[in-house]
Amino acid sequence: MNVRPVPPTTSTTPSSSYPRFDPHITLLSLPADSPTPISVLRDAISSIQLSLDIKFKSIDIGTQFFRSVYIAVQLTPALTEIHTHVHKKVGVEPRTPKYPHLSLCYITDEDAQQGGREAFYRAIEDKIRKEGDGVSLDCGELTEEWMSGFVASEIWIAECNGPIEDWNILDKVPLQYV
């Protein structure tokens, strides 16, 4: 998915805004000091057998770094079930605000105060179109490639501590296509 415009370079000081990352839906979030081993996480998702249909609901401007501008995803019974299942298996309360969503960019509060989140949205606004009860997003670079969703074929287990560029994918658990 490539919808990210070139970050603005109007500031003379370096910014932590616009780091590169793989768009993703956060299913479960644990504290950095969690003693939960990766085997428990893998076991929690190993019983999920079906791929997940992801449909885009809207593109929204958020109020927080990790939800600066994001795709709100239509909450389906399957997404609700997997979210509940994984949290129960791991034994933690859900801490996944705006679930489910896919962030398109991360913009610091300082840059947001200067209109950074709104500017990012305006830069992609002509790549968004309403379709039924959702939206499509043009993800093409040289030609139009409209996407209104996708099929999630795997769940990643990631360690997301420290700078975003240092996040580490620990495992990828494949899902079966239906």
UniProtKB/TrEMBL annotation:
<dbReference type="InterPro" id="IPR012386">
    <property type="entry name" value="Cyclic-nucl_3Pdiesterase"/>
</dbReference>
<dbReference type="InterPro" id="IPR009097">
    <property type="entry name" value="Cyclic_Pdiesterase"/>
</dbReference>
<dbReference type="Pfam" id="PF07823">
    <property type="entry name" value="CPDase"/>
</dbReference>
<protein>
    <recommendedName>
        <fullName>2',3'-cyclic-nucleotide 3'-phosphodiesterase</fullName>
    </recommendedName>
</protein>
<dbReference type="GO" id="GO:0009187">
    <property type="term" value="P:cyclic nucleotide metabolic process"/>
</dbReference>
<dbReference type="GO" id="GO:0004113">
    <property type="term" value="F:2',3'-cyclic-nucleotide 3'-phosphodiesterase activity"/>
</dbReference>
